[in-house]
Task: structure prediction
Amino acid sequence: MNAHDEVFIGGHWRPAAGTDDIKVINPANEQVIGSVPAGSAADVDAAVNAARSALPGWAATAPDRRAELLTALSVELAACQDQMASLITAEVGTTIGFSRRVQAGLPVNMTRLHAELVADFAFEERVGSSLVLLEPVGVVGAITPWNYPLHQIVCKVVPALAAGCTVVLKPAELAPLSAQMFTECVAAAGFPAGVFNLVTGTGAEAGEALVRHPGVDMISFTGSTSVGKHIGAVASAEVKRVALELGGKSANVILPGADLAQAVRVNVADVMRNAGQSCNALTRTLVHADDYEEAIRIAVEEIASYIPGDPADPDCRMGPVVSSTQRGKVRDHMRRGVAEGARLVVGGPEAPEGRDKGYYIRPTIFADVTTEMSIAREEIFGPVLSFMRYEDEGDALRIVNDSEYGLAGAVWAADEDRAITFARSMECGQVAVNGGAYNPLAPFGGYKQSGVGRELGKHGLMEFLQTKSLQL
Ligand code: NAP
Ligand code: MG
Result:
């Protein structure tokens, strides 16, 4: 697609007030593939005003009608799924097969499922002598990251619109082209003008202006914990509602008697997908002392099939990371891992062979990682697995929960009851039990410093609603 050199405000594309632009780079070959406007505070102001004007009409629109338009949006997203997949592969570096299925495919499903959800949702309930009304929070400022750019947009925008809120979106500057294509889909679906607005730009300028704008009632943010803390503090000072989806350091716990090979293979695939740039990646692998070396042997065998290469090639299983900065951060983490005494089993900070162009990283396994090491504590956001040894279940649980984060986790056991018992004690918002599949309607979000609030399904919709009680 041709990138727009405009922002989308009040139902049409129009020139941005700011004159700077943002160049979008393909991380596989370091070439510029497009540019978008760097929106300014004036653009944010215009977008928020458009969203405010559209709010009363949209909030009063029947949920069934909102559901119809969201269904139309899912049809538009399905129609451009292949184009969207290629675009996200070009701006993020995700391998094309995964891009089609997940980056572009999952949001189609997600949008349709949430349209169905809102059509059946009870926006009113009787509590004794009261009538309790669930009303939209108002104008939502949505700020999203680049790793699953369309998915993160859909996780916010779709439930917000479903709830009757209007939206101003500030997508990640590294991946704004998919946000523009999403906006085309919104426009084609026929939403009223001003219900959805897009201002591309930097976090420091457009993002900050959105968080501070007095016309915004709620900020829904997905990104790093450090930026999330800042945004939470600024927005809370104005008594805005804040939802935060932040980083993670999720653990995969393999209990004795579990299917070791299956548990390790799934773990390797989980961390290699999107070159390790998934907030819920299972980056800490906990294995009982008796199974430990065998688990590492299986992982080494498995990881050999992830050879960094061109993500647009359908046979490629491992693309680059998103940017040179991201590559630098991942390599720094690896160097610290070595310096702190972890055993580098495979991979490491050097460029993969034959990949001198593009932001490629060697798929990496560390062993003998202990809880005080930075590679056990900090989010790496790259294709790096850390193996940790435990002696008994109590020890495993202590290691799992010894983290500032609490986004996700996984547990494997010979029987499901034992796995569920362990999962109940894990301090995190989602746990995959014996490889349980991702559920697009299950609430997603973090304990501890992984966030505030939940996205998706009924719980996600509730985030965008406020309650009023009428005493009758
Ligand atoms: P990031 O640097 O925190 O940026 C996220 C978004 O916030 C971007 O749009 C960014 O703009 C914007 N931003 C930055 N500073 C801002 C400010 N002062 N005011 C307002 N907005 C601001 O995160 P990232 O590097 O894009 O994404 C990676 C992180 O996201 C990881 O930590 C990952 O775990 C987390 N993540 C969490 C989830 C979840 O659901 N919990 C999902 C995906 C990712 P720029 O584009 O200009 O930087
Ligand atoms: Mg950033």
In short: The CA atoms of residues 286 and 388 lie 5 Å apart. The chain has a mean pLDDT of 97. DSSP finds 15 helices and 22 strands in the chain. The first strand starts at residue 6 and ends at 9.
